[in-house]
């Protein structure tokens, strides 16, 4: 019995250096993990403050900070695992293969995601802007990571993929200080075009919403059966729709009152 105990103590003393070495590595790994975790949190907080100072969109800011934090923490965990003797080569290879497979399966979604990042980063438009893109015109309701939500003139909600927006022409009417609006109608060949011009231009005389420079204009285009009249005027982007509606009606009433023979009318805004 005594010999057996001596044998166990001998084995323990033989393992003691290895055990102490492993415990030392484990303690060091824990210290590295705690310190590294704190440093990563400090880095992400600092990045958040810099992004806020740079006026980066909150949606993009939160997403970028999450991605950076996750990547740094994943690298930290892999480094700590290698410190305690865990083989990480196979683990990294599996993660890489899984990431490649997921990326190939989600190509369309990733394209929309990348488009969302570009839109939020470079800000070609913002919430509240009136835009035309990919055959859709409306006011931007929200910009999400994968799609942009528009509200059109009929109050319908339109969902446009961000990949489409980032790879096509986008017309942002709200970024201009002024826009050209127009009203079109038809008059008879026998009507007096000079009188029509004077009547139509008088409509804008006391309207503070219509810019005086450039001045409103009236143009005439002969057609086979009648003359097309286009009344053009400049105004702020937000006033285009109400002013077009106002002067479509006012121009018809003014000309009919003076005996003009009107054809089919059409309203446009550019």
UniProtKB/TrEMBL annotation:
Its main location: membrane. SUPFAM superfamilies: Mechanosensitive channel protein MscS (YggB), C-terminal domain, Mechanosensitive channel protein MscS (YggB), transmembrane region, Sm-like ribonucleoproteins. The chain crosses the membrane at residues 20-43, 63-87, 93-122. InterPro entries: LSM_dom_sf, MSC_TM_helix, MscS_archaea/bacteria_type, MscS_beta-dom_sf, MscS_channel_2nd, MscS_channel_C_sf, MscS_channel_CS, MscS_channel_TM-2. Residues 109-174 form the Mechanosensitive ion channel MscS domain. It is found in: Cell inner membrane; Cell membrane. It is a multi-pass membrane protein. It comes from the Bacteria. The keyword Amino-acid biosynthesis does not apply. Keywords: Cell inner membrane, Cell membrane, Ion channel, Ion transport, Membrane, Transmembrane, Transmembrane helix, Transport. PROSITE patterns: UPF0003. It holds the Pfam family MS_channel_1st_1. Belongs to the MscS (TC 1.A.23) family. Mechanosensitive channel that participates in the regulation of osmotic pressure changes within the cell, opening in response to stretch forces in the membrane lipid bilayer, without the need for other proteins. Contributes to normal resistance to hypoosmotic shock. Forms an ion channel of 1.0 nanosiemens conductance with a slight preference for anions. Homoheptamer. This is Small-conductance mechanosensitive channel. It comes from Gluconobacter frateurii NRIC 0228.
């Amino acid at each position: 019995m005594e010999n057996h105990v001596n044998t166990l103590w001998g084995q323990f003393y033989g393992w003691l250096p290895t055990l102490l070495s492993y415990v030392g590595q484990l303690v060091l790994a824990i210290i590295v993990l705690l310190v590294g975790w704190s440093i990563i949190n400090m880095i992400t907080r600092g990045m958040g403050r810099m992004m806020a100072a740079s006026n980066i969109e909150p949606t993009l800011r939160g997403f970028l900070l999450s991605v950076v934090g996750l990547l740094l923490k994943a690298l930290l965990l892999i480094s700590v695992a290698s410190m305690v003797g865990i083989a990480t080569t196979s683990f990294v290879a599996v993660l890489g293969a899984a990431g490649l497979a997921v990326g190939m399966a989600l190509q369309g979604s990733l394209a929309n995601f990348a488009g969302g990042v570009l839109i939020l980063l470079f800000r070609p438009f913002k919430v509240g802007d009136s835009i035309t893109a990919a055959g859709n015109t409306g006011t931007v309701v929200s910009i999400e990571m994968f799609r942009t939500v528009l509200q059109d003139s009929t109050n319908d909600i339109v969902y446009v993929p961000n990949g489409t927006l980032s790879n096509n022409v986008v017309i942002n009417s709200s970024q201009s200080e002024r826009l050209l609006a127009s009203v079109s109608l038809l008059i008879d060949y026998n009507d007096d075009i000079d009188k029509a011009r004077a009547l139509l231009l008088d409509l804008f005389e006391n309207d503070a919403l219509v810019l005086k420079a450039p001045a409103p204009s009236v143009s005439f285009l002969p057609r086979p059966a009648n003359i097309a009249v286009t009344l053009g005027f400049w105004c702020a982007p937000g006033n285009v729709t109400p002013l077009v509606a106002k002067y479509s009606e006012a121009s018809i009433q003014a000309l009919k009152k003076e005996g003009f023979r009107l054809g089919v009318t059409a309203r446009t805004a550019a």
